[in-house]
């Protein structure tokens, strides 16, 4: 699993703000890596709110990254025309 996917999963399970430091501790990554993952998620269209000294919060938590959905499907589906 890529770091941005792991960050997304953590954010999707939180109901309140979580600091970059706590996310970094959970994933054994640097805060810089977390910041880059947050930016990647935002580029993917995921809305994340950030408040200084509070952390990050997923704003549109009902979205699922295609990669995460694909990994968790019980069967693989492919379409070949």
Question: Summed up, what is this model?
Answer:
The chain is mainly alpha-helical. The chain has helices at 3-13, 20-27, 31-43, 66-72; strands spanning 48-51, 55-58. The chain is built from four helices and two strands; from the N terminus they run H-H-H-E-E-H.
Keywords for this entry:
81 residues; HTH_11; single chain; elongated; HTH domain-containing protein; mainly alpha; Arc Repressor Mutant, subunit A; two-stranded antiparallel sheet
How would you characterize this protein structure?
This is HTH domain-containing protein. InterPro entries: HTH_11 (IPR013196), WH-like_DNA-bd_sf (IPR036388), WH_DNA-bd_sf (IPR036390). Residues 6-57 form the Helix-turn-helix type domain. This protein is mainly alpha-helical and 81 residues long. The chain has one domain: Winged helix-like DNA-binding domain superfamily/Winged helix DNA-binding domain (Arc Repressor Mutant, subunit A), CATH 1.10.10. Helix content is 48%, strand content 10%. It is built from four helices and two strands. It has a two-stranded antiparallel ribbon with strand order 1-2. A hairpin with a 3-residue loop joins strand 1 (48-51) and strand 2 (55-58). Helix 1 (3-13) crosses helix 3 and helix 2 (20-27) crosses helix 3 (31-43). The longest helix is centred in the middle third of the chain and has 13 residues, at 31-43. The protein is elongated. The mean pLDDT is 84.
The arrangement of helices and strands along the chain is: HHHEEH
Q: Please outline the major beta sheet.
A: 2 strands, antiparallel
Low-pLDDT runs: none
Helix count, DSSP H or I runs of 4 or more residues? 4
- Round the mean pLDDT to the nearest integer and report it: 84
Q: What is the level-2 CATH architecture name?
A: Orthogonal Bundle
Tell me the helix content. Answer: 40-55%
Give the CATH class: Mainly Alpha
Strand residues, percent: 5-15%
Rg, rounded, reads 14 Å
Q: Give the CA-CA distance, first to last residue.
A: 30 Å
Principal-axis shape: elongated
- At the fourth level of CATH, the homologous superfamily is Winged helix-like DNA-binding domain superfamily/Winged helix DNA-binding domain
Q: What is the tally of beta strands?
A: 2
Structural domain tally: 1
User: What name is given to the CATH topology?
Assistant: Arc Repressor Mutant, subunit A
Strand order of the largest sheet: 1-2
By helix and strand content, what is the structural category?
Answer: mainly alpha
